[in-house]
TrEMBL record:
GO terms for molecular function: serine-type carboxypeptidase activity. This is Carboxypeptidase. It is an enzyme of class 3 (hydrolase). Belongs to the peptidase S10 family. PANTHER family: CARBOXYPEPTIDASE, SERINE PROTEASE FAMILY S10 SERINE CARBOXYPEPTIDASE. Keywords: Carboxypeptidase, Glycoprotein, Hydrolase, Protease.
Length: 490
């Protein structure tokens, strides 16, 4: 494999790397790359490096459906701000999730064998023109900068509406709810099909303040800035001093390049919109985990709680569908407080049988960027180090278990949503009464298939007038697995 050859060449330049522990880490689509690279290293008779641990953050380990679409309801449970705390809208998405087979039941320990295969989302709608348009957007959005441009375009469309159209926004929102309430129960939306993430983000961009005048950041829900704060690293990486220090070739660095998977970026028969025809890593994770255990290589999986695109539920499904240490999935639900150096709880940590899982509070898709100090602690203690916090030891768990962290989601309903242009100008937080009412509702709404009532209810957030804004209903094409953060820590 090319990566193994690269490592062999790297060791020729830095001979000491041949004997030092090698840590392979990455985020996003590295959830595909890292398992394949690890598999190649394991299959090499005399690998050039001594692999010690792999770490995958917010990674695309499952199918496209299992990575991007399956977590929509979990995201709404975590951030009801996206739908303005509207209980009827939540029930609608809950029903659609059930119809798509996304409402998998995570049990600890795992019961009843493996989960069934998920639907190919591209086969759930007859609106192929919209899907093709969506696919084009996904292909373009493999570049983060272009993704930001596409993200910003959707909410801007309402700016050109006439005054009369502006006056009809509330009516259109009400009509949207009447449409879903009038549809027979058990009916999948013919336009979106099982593209629930796209429908959720479209709803926010058209109905929920501040996304109606900002932009929905799929990687960090509280960020509604439009445009976002620039994060382009090209200035640093194209500095000649940096190139020299890294022994990098004298070529201009770019965030991405076209056709990373050969000559095609068409949707594959299996439903990969990037043209990647390789089998998703979740299909061989049990084999990989077994080989990792045999070789003493640890597996670390971590998630940011504010990531909507590659959210925690998808990662937890992969874990519970994987056999490691002779047992399928974790035997106990992750609920040990992950604490920083000052003793503050900053997330959840859990370890069983050579697999570590962490959930970071107040972090998006790019955990080190969102919470750098906490990310450093995690790197120090759980990737490079061997902290036992969260380790299941017989009937005990090191660090204990917090019942408040045992839910299927980590609530962020009190989180502020920030908006502005290029920098934060203001933020919005839901009233305490709204949050209390939502929590009362959601406590009993987690099970069963909901029935959508006909009576519409308005938004109850702190900016309800703006939440009524609407610019129609279309697939936005915001989704992307573009972010590849591939790091080798030595």
């Amino acid at each position: 494999m090319a990566m193994v050859r690269f490592l062999a060449n790297l060791v020729k330049v830095f001979p000491s790397l041949a004997t030092r522990p090698f840590h392979l880490t990455g985020e996003s689509y590295a959830g595909v790359y890292i398992p394949y690279i690890t598999k190649a290293i394991f299959s090499t008779p005399n690998p050039p490096v001594k692999l010690a641990r792999i770490a995958i953050g917010d990674g695309s380990m499952g199918s496209f459906t299992g990575t991007e679409e399956i977590s929509t309801v979990n995201t709404l449970q975590t951030f009801p701000q996206i739908i303005g705390f509207d209980t009827e809208v939540f029930q609608y998405f809950q029903e659609q999730s059930h119809l798509c087979g996304y409402d998998l039941n995570l049990t600890y320990p795992k019961k009843n064998g493996h989960f069934p295969s998920l639907v190919n989302v591209f086969k759930t709608t007859t609106h192929f023109d919209a899907i093709l348009s969506l696919n084009q957007a996904r292909k373009i959005s493999f570049d983060l900068n272009l993704r930001a441009t596409l993200t910003n375009q959707l909410p801007k469309r309402h700016v050109m509406l006439s005054e009369r159209e502006l006056a009809l926004r509330e009516d259109k929102r009400t009509q949207w709810k009447r449409d879903i309430s009038g549809r027979p129960n058990g009916t999948l939306d013919p336009f979106y099909g099982c593209f629930l993430w796209e429908e959720m983000t479209d709803y926010a961009a058209n109905f929920t303040f501040p996304w109606t005048q900002g932009a929905f950041d799929p990687y960090d829900i509280p960020d509604a800035l439009n445009p976002e704060v620039p994060t382009d690293p090209s200035v640093f990486l194209n500095d000649e001093r940096v190139r020299t220090a890294l022994h990098a070739p004298d070529k201009r660095w770019g965030a991405s390049f076209p056709f990373p998977f050969g000559n095609s970026t068409d949707i594959t028969p299996a439903g990969n919109p990037f043209g990647d025809r390789s089998v998703e890593p979740s299909a061989f994770m049990s084999e990989l985990a077994s080989n990792a255990t045999e070789r003493g290589v640890g597996i670390v999986i971590y998630e940011g709680n504010s990531d909507s695109l590659v959210a925690r539920f998808g990662a937890e499904v992969v874990i519970q569908n994987t056999t490691f240490g002779g047992i399928q999935g974790f035997t106990r639900r992750p609920s040990t407080p992950f604490k920083d150096d000052n003793g503050n709880t900053v997330g959840i940590i859990h370890q069983e049988r050579n697999v570590t899982y962490a959930l970071f509070e107040n972090a998006g898709h790019f955990v080190p960027r969102s919470v750098p100090e906490v990310a450093f602690i995690f790197l120090r203690d759980f990737i490079l180090g061997n902290s036992t916090s969260g380790l299941v030891n017989g009937s005990n768990v090191v660090g204990g278990e917090d019942p408040a962290l045992m839910g299927a989601y980590l609530p962020a309903d009190t989180a502020a949503i920030f908006y502005g242009s290029g920098s934060t100008v203001a933020s919005t937080v839901a009233p305490s009464e709204t949050i209390a009412a939502w929590r009362s509702f959601i406590a009993t709404a987690g099970t069963g298939v909901p029935q959508i009532s006909a009576a519409p209810t308005g938004p109850t957030g702190s900016n309800s007038a703006e939440a009524l804004e609407n610019a129609g209903k279309w697939i936005s094409g915001l989704a992307t697995l573009a972010s590849i953060m591939f790091t080798m820590i030595i």
